[in-house]
Design brief:
Shape: elongated
CATH class of the largest domain: Alpha Beta
Strand order of the largest sheet: 1-7-6-5-2-3-4
CATH architecture of the largest domain: 2-Layer Sandwich
Structural class: alpha/beta
CATH topology of the largest domain: Endonuclease, Chain A
Radius of gyration: 21 Å
Number of domains: 2
Order of helices and strands: HHHHHEHEHHEHHEEEEHH
Distance between the termini: 47 Å
Helix content: 40-55%
Number of strands: 7
Strand content: 5-15%
Length: about 290
C-alpha cells in the first residue's frame, strides 16, 4: 500500500514524493553527480538520497534547497515548485491518506502532478466533459462562470494549464483514459451551441485514440451507483502503488489514498460502466447530439 500515507515514515512511497524524487534524480544525472556526492551536500548517507529519489521519505525544505544549489538550479520558480511538492507531500502524510483544502490553483497543480505520473485514469462525469478532452473554448466558458476566476488574464492562464494537460493522451507515454460520461454532460450548452458542437467533435476525435475509451450513460439507464457525484481514479505503473481517488466538491478537494476505500470507487465505476452504452453506440449518440446542435 505504497500510496497510502499512513505515517509510516520511510516505509511509505507517495506519488508526490516520487514525482519530486524523480525530478531531483534527473537533475543529479544531468549534473554528472553521484548519490554519495549528493549525500555529502546534505551531511547524510547515500542510502538516504536513494530513498529520497524513490519517494520513500518526506522531503525537508533545507534538503531540497541544498540539492537544487548543488545541481545548479537557481530559478526561483523551479525551486518554489519543488518546495510546494514537498509541502503537499508532507501534508498528505500527516493526513493519513486524506487531503482536502479549499479549491485554488494549488489544487489543480497537485492533480496535474498526480496525473503526470499516472499511467491510467478512470473518470466519471455527471455534468462536464472530462478535462483531458475539453476544447479551449469549452474550458474558457467554464472558467468564466467559475466565481474563483474573475480576471480575464487569470482565466486564460487556467485555460492554458488545462490545455497543456492534454499532452498526456498522446506522445511517447500516452495516458490510458477510460471515461464514462452521463448524457447530460453532452447536452448542457456550455458556451452555447457552437462551442458545444466543436466540443462534441473533439470528444469523437479523442474517442478514436487507441488509449482512450469513452462510454455514455444514457438517461434511460435511470438510477445508477455513481449518481452522487463525479470522481477520478488514478492508477500507477509501480507494483506497490494503489489507486488514488480524486473527488472535487464545491467547497473542497478530497483525495482517497486508502486501498479499501479506493476499491469501492472502482467497483462503483465498473458497475456504472456496465450500465452505459458500448463505445460504438456511445459515439453514435454523441454524433447525433452534435448534429442536433
Amino acid at each position: 500500500m505504497a500510496e497510502s500515507a499512513t505515517g509510516l515514515g520511510n516505509r511509505v512511497s507517495t506519488v508526490l514524493a516520487r514525482k519530486l524524487g524523480g525530478e531531483l534524480l534527473r537533475l543529479r544525472d544531468a549534473a554528472g553527480l553521484t548519490q554519495p556526492q549528493a549525500a555529502a551536500a546534505l551531511s547524510a548517507t547515500a542510502a538516504k538520497v536513494a530513498k529520497m529519489e524513490r519517494g520513500w521519505v518526506p522531503f525537508r525544505d533545507p534538503d531540497v534547497r541544498a540539492l537544487c544549489e548543488l545541481y545548479g538550479v537557481s530559478d526561483t520558480k523551479t525551486v518554489g515548485g519543488f518546495l510546494e511538492l514537498a509541502r503537499l507531500d508532507r501534508e498528505r502524510r500527516k493526513a493519513k491518506g486524506w487531503w482536502q483544502h479549499s479549491p485554488n490553483a494549488g489544487a489543480l497543480a497537485e492533480y496535474i502532478a498526480m496525473e503526470d505520473v499516472a499511467n491510467r485514469v478512470r473518470t466519471w462525469q455527471l455534468s462536464l466533459i472530462p478535462g483531458l478532452f475539453q476544447t479551449a473554448e469549452y474550458a474558457r466558458a467554464l472558467s468564466v462562470t467559475d466565481a474563483r476566476w474573475e480576471d480575464p488574464d487569470e482565466i486564460e492562464r487556467i485555460v492554458e494549464v488545462r490545455m497543456k494537460r492534454q499532452a498526456r493522451i498522446a506522445g511517447e507515454r500516452p495516458l490510458q483514459v477510460y471515461a464514462v460520461v452521463w448524457e447530460a454532460a453532452l447536452r448542457q450548452l456550455v458556451g452555447g451551441r457552437e462551442v458545444m458542437r466543436a466540443q462534441l467533435e473533439r470528444l469523437l476525435d479523442v474517442a478514436r485514440l487507441p488509449n482512450v475509451r469513452v462510454q455514455v450513460l444514457p438517461y434511460r439507464a435511470g438510477g445508477h451507483p455513481c449518481i452522487t457525484g463525479p470522481f477520478n481514479i488514478l492508477s500507477f505503473a509501480e507494483t506497490e502503488a494503489v489507486d488514488v481517488v480524486h473527488v472535487d466538491t464545491i467547497a473542497n478537494t478530497v483525495w482517497v489514498e486508502n486501498e479499501a476505500e479506493g476499491a469501492i470507487y472502482s467497483t462503483f465505476f465498473d458497475r456504472t460502466a456496465r450500465l452505459s452504452l458500448a463505445q460504438r453506440d456511445s459515439a453514435v449518440l454523441i454524433d447525433s447530439i452534435r448534429k442536433g446542435m
